[in-house]
Automatic annotation (TrEMBL), chains A, B:
Keywords: Kinase, Nucleotide-binding, Serine/threonine-protein kinase, Transferase. It comes from Aquipseudomonas ullengensis. GO terms for molecular function: ADP binding; ATP binding; phosphotransferase activity, phosphate group as acceptor; protein serine/threonine kinase activity. It catalyses: [pyruvate, water dikinase]-phosphate + phosphate + H(+) = [pyruvate, water dikinase] + diphosphate; [pyruvate, water dikinase] + ADP = [pyruvate, water dikinase]-phosphate + AMP + H(+). ADP binds at residues 152-159. Belongs to the pyruvate, phosphate/water dikinase regulatory protein family. PSRP subfamily. This is Putative phosphoenolpyruvate synthase regulatory protein.
Length: 272, 272
């Protein structure tokens, strides 16, 4: 069965989308067509939205599921006239929170992902720049400023993880690729030694690594299974010998790897 | 008044955190200490969590707010014994959804941010690599593969926006810095001309740009207010002359800019 789900907001739609995705993931026998519709912030846009919802209802032969975080009551009333099944995220929780906090909700639009709500803007951009500047061992003389330094073989997922942690948490994460030379030396590279407490290792299944490297450099020694297997084995040995905590990135998303690293290293996010 | 909020999950905590942040943002007179606690997936961790909650309750003199997406009932029961005020995100919405979908929730842990739920893993990593490889005009011969090309003066926020769109939406976004030369030529650089339909402009207030550039190159001509003002004015003229849609990034977060760009260009996210 095909069913359409809309994530509708008068802001970015991030909250509606995140919660909606989580809830729908619990119903894995149903194939959902998921559509995020941010900035539905006028009566006209709401009416056009109703048209889209009704068209989907007709096409699917069943009413769409609507997750909304729209604050404006007039717009919500219009959406409520559609042929959708509405999950009202804000109204469900704001009343009990108002009571518990003895305080009134400001019912203001798009607060949580706006720049205004966050004094952290510069910190975040700084963290992204830090990740870019200190990517792939490009520079090692700013490691004193790093919150974390990810280590692992080339193409095991270090860069996306560093960027995600920077963007989402404001964490300054550098990364350093361990090369064949480092492995043969059987010890940590000199640049990393003073920062052993900041190190976190990533490893990966050799066959996945082979596939990823083939995309970049097809049929090279670098991408051969033998080479990948050798590097992974040696690096895992190094992690164990040096007591560097590590995880295998093969079966985890960037979100999962990042969350696990923060828990394991006891690092709190800088963006609040 | 100081009050602690916990975002607790047996997965990454992203859903609990996102919804919790959105709801708390509506109560802007209260100062919240926000703590995300992912991977609370055992009885022992749940008991330790209760300790933390109770300690915060004692310190604040008022019970903490708890947003949880824990699926396991035993763990939820333990958390329920704490001195916190629980907002049960999943249980609130799963029952009505089960009824509407005539289907049972799988009550499985950490579904929505796991790699398993997403066939999009490679697409996402590819998009991040595309953003990195095509950053800052480094390469222009892959613009045929780009979903979007951001243009604007140096340091107006192009790179973080491209990376965010890649990571969150799987969108392949390149970016090209418009230089003084481009401005003096009074026309689009040759590399961009064939891709005018993919272009989106970013602009920024000159005083903000001055501040950002000073961080990078203090007291340079590049960072001077006169230079920043000149570049911004010329680039905005170019955008208008060439009918390139654009927004001013000064007062928007990366999330807001990204969502606005997708709406304006009518580009659907690639990650579903």
């Amino acid at each position: 069965m095909k069913r359409t789900a809309f994530f509708i907001s008068d802001g970015t739609g991030i909250t509606a989308e995140t919660l909606g995705q989580s809830l729908l993931a619990q119903f894995d026998t149903i194939g959902f067509t998921k559509l995020t519709r941010p900035y539905i912030d006028s009566v006209d846009k709401a009416r056009a939205m109703v048209q889209q919802i009704n068209t989907a209802a007709e096409k699917d032969g069943v009413r769409p599921i609507i997750f909304d975080t729209v604050v404006n009551q007039e717009i919500r009333d219009i959406l409520g006239q559609s042929d959708g099944f509405m999950i009202d995220i804000f109204s469900t929780f704001l009343a009990p929170l108002e009571q518990e906090l003895s305080s009134h909700s400001s019912y203001s639009v798009g607060k949580s992902h706006s720049i205004a709500s966050s004094s952290n803007y510069m910190e975040r951009i700084e963290a992204v720049n830090f990740a870019l500047d200190n990517d792939d061992g490009a520079r090692t003389h700013y490691y004193d400023k790093a919150d974390l330094i990810l280590v692992g073989v080339s193409r095991c997922g270090k860069t996306p993880t560093c960027l995600y942690m920077a963007m989402q948490f404001g964490i300054r994460a550098a990364n350093y690729p361990l090369t064949e030379e480092d492995m043969e030396r059987l010890q940590l590279p000199a640049a990393l030694k003073p920062y052993k407490h900041k190190l976190f290792g990533l490893t990966i299944d050799p066959d996945r690594l082979t596939a990823i490297r083939h995309e970049r450099k097809p049929n090279s020694r670098y991408a051969s299974f033998a080479q990948c297997e050798f590097e992974v084995r040696e690096v895992e040995n190094l992690f164990r010998r040096e007591n560097i905590p590590y995880i295998n990135s093969t079966h985890f998303s960037v979100e999962e790897i990042s969350a696990k690293i923060l828990v394991e290293k006891g690092v709190e996010r800088r963006l609040k």
